[in-house]
Amino acid sequence: FVAASSGNIKAEREKLSSALVLLFQVAATGIFTSGNLLLFFIFWDIGVVTAFLMINTLGHSGSKIASMNFLIYEIFASVMLLFAILLIYFYTPLHTFDIASIISGASQIPTSTQSMIMVFLLIAFMVNMPIFPLHSWLPDAYSEASTQGSMIIGGILSKFGAFGLLLSFELMPIASHYSIYVFAFSVFSSIYASLVMISQKDIKRIIAYAAMAEMGVIGMGISAYNTFGTFGALYGMLAQGLSIAFVFLIAGSIMHEFGERDIRLLKGIVMQSKAMAYSFVLGIFFIGGLPLTAGFIADLLIFIGAYKSFSFYAFIPFASIILIASYLYYVANKSIFECSSFSKNVSFIGASQKIGYAIFITALFALGMMPFVILNAVH
Asked: Who has the most CB within 10 Å: 79, 187, 241, 374?
């Protein structure tokens, strides 16, 4: 779907791009359906290597440095994850990688070992989401990747970390003792990312920090460790994945058609492509979680769950959501809808992008108006 919706945004090597998209699809399917921790780890690394190649071989001018920075963080995360999995295997009575068996027998793991496992898991998964302070790879990786790479890394790879974080709360009985720490890091990460975002002028870096702030909200839902928080986090992964991929698609379209990423140099886009301009506005609605969108359902469930666990502190990330939506509106008003001058290098807006916009918009509104279709399946 990523390849199809961004079909007119040419990659340097189209065959390689298509192969990497398909390989990442294998990794994502394996991660989200695996009932075995060893397979989970294998598919995790397949996804990481694929994302590295997407940045390194198909990215923009700064992709080499961005990809190496990304790889260093991901190797560190993989080592932490492997240590945790090995400790689980050796200390679980049945000595198994089967997730269901581990959950049933994890209470027999010594408390000190559970704590060590939990720390390793939290570090590994916080790198991928990413959560402050393990986020330094994010702005360059998201902005220097190809459009397909940005959509996949922002929309799916970050969910490897969120899904793993949720899984770690299911695996270890001691996880409830760590929920307050995950909550604190997630809330701070969300606020931090939104504050850094408002100083950015590169449209892809703006979206990157918006994605990080949203992942902080999802992390807060996971840390709530109750039904509302868990359902909200799962729905948030779906909603945020679609909305971030959507705005990265628009950003890629803008770069391809107008030859610029700097919002100070992008002017009059609405006069050249109304579909692109108004789709960006809808992207703001989706990220901001307006009613009738999937993000609204996710945020509502997350904040209810977080309030049950952390009282009024749960509403602190509201500030980051408001700040993100406000700054994105400012970007749209001062750049896309500013018609005092026009950007150069304008070409025809391809049909595949418009089809991609339509599919994303339909999905995000449908999930916002019919949430129980997904929630009942998750239950």
From this structure: 187
Q: Indicate if the pLDDT at residue 325 is higher than 50.
A: yes
Which sign, positive or negative, has the C-alpha torsion 145, 17, 80, 306?
positive
pLDDT of 132 reads 86
The residue type at 356: G
Residue 92 sits at φ, ψ, to 5 deg, of: -75, 135
- What are the φ and ψ backbone dihedral angles of 202, each rounded to 5 degrees? -80, 125
Model confidence over 274-306: pLDDT tens digits? 777 788 888 888 888 888 888 888 888 999 998
CB 221 within 8 A of CB 240: no
* Residues 356 and 4 sit within 8 Å (Cβ to Cβ): yes
The 10 Å Cβ neighbour count of residue 377 is: 7
275 burial level (CB within 10 Å; 0-12, 13-18, 19+)? middle
* Residue 295 to residue 244: CA distance in whole angstroms: 11
- For residues 187 and 192, what is the distance between their CA atoms, to the nearest angstrom? 9
pLDDT at residue 185, as a whole number: 92
Termini Cα distance of the chain: 26
What are the helix (H) ranges across the chain?
Answer: 2-5, 14-33, 37-58, 63-91, 99-105, 111-128, 138-144, 147-152, 158-171, 179-197, 203-224, 227-258, 269-272, 274-288, 294-310, 318-331, 351-369, 372-378
Q: The whole model's pTM is what?
A: 0.87
Residues 229, 300: contact at Cβ < 8 Å? no
Handedness of CA 78, 80, 81, 87 (dihedral sign): positive
The region of weakest confidence among 197-201, 279-283, 347-351 is: 347-351
Encoded tokens for 157: 């790879």
Contact (CB, 8 A) for 171 and 187:
no
Give 36's strand partners.
Answer: 98
Phi, psi dihedral angles at 262 (to 5 degrees): -80, 120
Query: In the predicted model, is pLDDT for residue 7 greater than 80?
Result: no
Structure tokens at 188: 């701070």
- Residue 131's Cβ-side half-sphere holds a number of Cα atoms within 13 Å equal to 27
